[in-house]
Specification:
Mean pLDDT of chain A: 86
Oligomer: homodimer
Number of strands of chain A: 17
Number of helices of chain A: 10
Number of domains of chain A: 3
Strand content of chain A: 15-25%
Largest interface: A-B, 60 and 60 residues
Structural class of chain A: alpha+beta
Low-confidence stretches of chain A: 1-12, 383-400
Order of helices and strands of chain A: HHHEEHEHEEEEEEHEHEEHHEEEEEH
Shape of chain A: globular
Largest sheet of chain A: 7 strands, mixed
Radius of gyration of chain A: 21 Å
Chain lengths: 425, 425
């Protein structure tokens, strides 16, 4: 149940040249990461969506407020606990408490399980954790059912001078946000004296995907030098279009032109690498999340011809926010299938460590589509031996090499978010 | 196969009072460990044998040169890799290579698998690892078969000034000993400029169990204050007898007296705690390993009456060393059974983290006997959710609380070895 049903089915593409190179350079890569984490504080946590087209492997989205901890293989919770332990041991050995601020919705069972799991991980690391909610609906200590057997309690937040506490008097030196602040900067969190992770300005009210991918460009260029590859193999072209108003066709022509520019850049890379796939781009709300505000097109012309329904879908995202900025991102096909359904890996990290992940699988989507949509399901990665390189084999298990490359690209994505977070401080 | 067949069978004793206390104090305990590791460098690795009599849980042996990495659940190799990564990131971020020195015997397949697994773990952390052997039989690069498919190469060691290298020119800044140096301090390792882990004087030619347990006493007294328990619940009485010659009955009477003293101390503790078991002690070679030189007795009188065969067994241990010193250690019953066979947990640690373990199970031994003997087999611990406290339950798994207490006592044992190693520097 928690294992990939059939690894050969899950990974039906040929071994990437990139994977061979990563394995050959494993010592340099691990050493490089260690030196990077020595000078760049890893974020508390993060998750990254990868796309593997067999000729390239790239992050397409980096989540600084990861949900879905309930979807990772529960066998690997100890990895998360160990990461939290290390993080605290290194940066704040005196920390004993964390105030966890989740998303406001309290009826999304999957999300509640995520909060529960995160709370569990923190508690296992010996961190006393209390959940404080920003939701106006939480006006008193509220017991929330996660399963028939399991409950958790959400407390209202109160502010006393420059400290946030919960109404039951819980006062922590560290506040962990699992709320992406899509609908604005909550006044209660401004100018507080406690450590807020990630920082307030990393919230989606402020964060832009293009800021993140600008940092990822820097990371890729550095890393590509280490293993001597074309950075395009691990990166996707992108551009930004601003001042858009989909409802009134404002800015659409410029967007269409930019789409064509990216398409042409992809075309020449495809030609250079003898790739016969059709180039496409993904247009996404620059501050979007939850898989909303996303559109896949193969030309600028398609943008000019989109119908009202598609426009409406692009115009508004989570919490009713209007879309004015978009990122135009090179589309990366996913050629991974599980049970013949299109899938993409999502990798979770805490501190500098990969702690697990899952395949996002969608029975009704195609290889060039966004899979973060209603109807997706999740198959936990057997991060374990399989997540490790098999240059030499562990005597007791086989170790497909693919997962090592996933862990490398995921950590590059994490490093970029570490760079990005510095820009918000 | 890698799971405990039936957890309820494995853990057939009632939940210890101690376990409840550990769970109640989990936040304080984890915080205490973090502060301890902040000021005391954990050893590179170690394994500890625990005995659980339901009324007490104590370490009875701490191995600074752990074999048996092949017996831990391969699913948890990532925990070991993460621990190695953290260790290096913290203490020597520039380290890229390790020279691994194994035991000399090259025909013990189980031990070879251990070396292979250890090498694998280091390689996964991006540490270039070469195996250099102290054995006189290794006079050139020698390929060793671990399984039909897997091989590894042992290289002879050479010394150039104050550096040890292998004959293929491998020069590492760190040397990891997996050879317990039972038969003396190898001249080639004396006064080298490289970092040697553990230090040379931690070898069994010099190390004494009583030195270790003296440090463990200190750790226990400190920790018992933190959670307000009688340290006896997590510690076993011990004493030392020296200048022994079993063959010539020298020192045997004093040994017998000391046995009675310990037995009497146990008796009064048993009375105090309403325990009806019969007290016993285990007499072990003070520098012994591999389960050799061990004897279980219920009175000093038994010592005086042991037959020639038992004397001979006590007189000589690994690599033909004669026994002159013994530790007289309070015997701790093990009331854990797997498939109705007597078993005891062995816990593995790297850096400050528990990375796995197994049950040592012996079909022919009794609850008061040493299980580290021919005929033992190993069932990997499902360290995972089950290894974590279930004060709150993870939604996807049940989490017996027992393993948390194991991890606490194992880490106390590790901390004591950290104290001990300081005495060898």
């Amino acid at each position: 149940m928690h294992k990939i049903p059939n690894l050969k089915t899950a990974l039906n593409v040929p071994l990437l040249e990139l994977e061979k190179i990563c394995l050959q350079h494993q010592h340099e890569i691990e050493h490089w990461f260690r030196s990077k984490w020595h000078t760049n504080k890893p974020p508390f946590y993060g998750s990254v969506d990868l796309r593997n087209s067999s000729y390239k492997l790239t992050p397409v989205d980096m989540n600084l407020f990861p949900g879905g901890f309930n979807n990772i293989n529960p066998d690997f919770i100890p990895l998360a606990v160990q990461a939290v332990n290390n993080l605290i041991e290194r940066y704040c050995p005196n920390a004993t408490k964390v105030l966890l601020i989740p998303e406001n919705h309290t009826r999304n069972l999957a999300y509640l399980k995520n909060v529960y799991t995160l709370n569990f991980i923190l508690e296992q690391a010996g961190i006393k954790t209390v959940i404080g909610s920003l939701s106006e609906e939480i006006t008193e200590a509220t017991t929330i059912n996660v399963t028939d057997e399991l409950t958790m309690t959400y407390y209202p937040l109160i502010r006393e001078n420059n400290r946030i506490k919960t109404t039951n008097g819980f006062d922590a030196c560290t506040i962990l946000l699992n709320n992406d602040l899509s609908n604005g900067k909550p006044a209660i969190l401004e100018n507080i004296e406690q450590i807020l992770l990630p920082p307030l300005n990393a919230g989606w009210y402020m964060r832009k995907k293009t800021n993140y991918f600008t940092q990822y460009d820097i990371v890729c260029d550095e890393f590509a030098n280490v293993i001597n590859i074309d950075p395009w193999l691990i990166n996707a072209y992108f551009d930004i279009a601003t001042d858009l108003d989909f409802a009134n066709n404002q800015g659409i022509e410029i967007l269409a032109q930019k789409v064509d520019t990216i398409i042409n850049k992809i075309k020449s890379k495809y030609a250079e690498n003898n790739i016969t796939d059709t180039p496409y781009v993904v247009v996404k709300a620059n501050n979007g999340t939850y898989g909303m505000g996303i559109m896949t097109v193969k030309s600028g012309d398609e943008i000019l011809k989109i119908n009202r329904k598609s426009k409406n879908k692009m115009a508004v995202i989570k919490d009713g926010q209007t879309v004015h900025d978009v990122i135009i991102q090179e589309g990366v096909y996913t050629f991974e299938k599980i049970n013949n359904q299109v899938s993409e890996p999502v990798i979770y990290m805490m501190d500098s460590a990969v702690i697990g992940g899952f395949y996002r699988v969608h029975p009704k989507k195609d290889v060039n589509e966004n899979l973060n949509a209603m109807g997706a399901h999740f198959i936990p990665l057997t991060y374990a031996c399989e997540a490790l390189p098999g240059k030499t084999k562990h005597p007791e298990c086989c170790a497909p090499n693919r997962f090592y490359t996933y862990s490398v690209i995921a950590r590059l994505a994490l490093l970029a978010s570490s760079y990005e977070i510095k820009t918000y401080l």
